[in-house]
């Protein structure tokens, strides 16, 4: 499957943190969720991909091209939304549209106003009167209205109420109905990613712990909940991570059905993305 974005061995060293050989790719027509605790390296990864910070090692290609090889066209084809607004607070959405029309040759004013209407944003009110959620909706409207092929979203739904967030996820799903479109979506709201993502990349301590199809996590991963005696009997080669709780052990495995067959007296629960993240971050690995 052809990739829109290919990241290979991306490395960035800081005095107290290292982004360490991060690799993943996003196929056409898919959504990649980027997860990890605060400080794991998600935003650093996105900033390095977009060359907002200089990488030390590694390669990043968009549609098989390095950003520096054709920067104007590649940037035209990428819509970016960060967790924060980059427009002057005294501007109105109407003025933002005029500025964006001059910046993007593919700008679609009618599409932009359709998003303003959909997101219930007044074209003539100053941005300083908007809530954080309204500002995020404006950023998303701008990102979508220059007709990008790749959306890069860094915590773009974090300021939205649950109803608007759900509506926004539907917008993202509609975007990738075009098989030439893809999304890289960083979010700490893992339930959003469970709804829309096709793949999940998990970054922890600057390293990629896994990059897997969401359905593999959903249908295969599980958590054995057991006492100390059964924990000692579990084949540790099958254990991805484990954690000692007050009265039991929680053990993350990649094949819950196998675990149910082998440990008939144990409770083996399905694992949500949140469960997986928590066990990797708070637990121990064999």
UniProtKB/TrEMBL annotation:
CDD domains: ABC_DR_subfamily_A
Nucleotide-binding among keywords: yes
Keywords per UniProt: ATP-binding, Nucleotide-binding, Transport
SMART domains: AAA (SM00382)
PROSITE patterns, alphabetized: ABC_TRANSPORTER_1, ABC_TRANSPORTER_2
SUPFAM superfamilies in the cross-refs: P-loop containing nucleoside triphosphate hydrolases
Protein name in the entry: ABC transporter
Molecular function per GO: ATP binding; ATP hydrolysis activity
ABC transporter domain: residues covered: 5-230
Pfam (any one): ABC_tran
């Amino acid at each position: 499957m052809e990739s829109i974005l290919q990241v290979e061995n991306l490395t960035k060293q800081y005095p107290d943190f290292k982004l360490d050989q991060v690799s993943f790719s996003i196929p056409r027509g898919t959504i990649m969720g980027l997860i990890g605790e605060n400080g794991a390296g998600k935003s650093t990864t996105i900033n390095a991909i977009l060359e907002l910070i200089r990488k030390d090692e590694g390669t990043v290609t968009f549609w098989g091209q390095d950003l520096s090889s054709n920067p104007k066209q590649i940037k035209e084809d990428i819509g970016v939304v960060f967790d924060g607004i980059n427009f002057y607070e005294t501007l109105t959405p109407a003025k933002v549209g005029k500025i964006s029309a001059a910046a993007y040759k593919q700008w679609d004013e009618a599409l932009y106003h359709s998003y303003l209407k959909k997101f219930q944003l007044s074209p003539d009110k100053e941005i300083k009167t908007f809530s954080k959620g309204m500002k995020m909706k404006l950023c998303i409207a701008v990102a979508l209205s220059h007709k990008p092929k790749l959306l890069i979203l860094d915590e773009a739904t974090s300021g939205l109420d649950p109803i608007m967030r759900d509506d926004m996820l539907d917008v993202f799903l509609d975007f990738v109905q075009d098989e030439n479109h893809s999304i890289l979506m960083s979010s700490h709201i893992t339930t959003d990613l469970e709804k829309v993502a096709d793949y999940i990349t998990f970054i922890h301590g600057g390293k990629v712990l896994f990059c897997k199809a969401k359905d593999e996590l959903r249908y295969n991963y599980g958590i054995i909940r057991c006492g100390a005696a059964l924990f000692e009997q579990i084949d540790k080669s099958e254990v991805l991570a484990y954690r000692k709780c007050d009265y039991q052990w929680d053990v993350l495995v990649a094949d819950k059905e196998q675990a149910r067959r082998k440990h008939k007296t144990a409770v083996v629960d399905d694992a949500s993305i949140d469960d997986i993240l928590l066990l990797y971050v708070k637990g121990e690995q064999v």
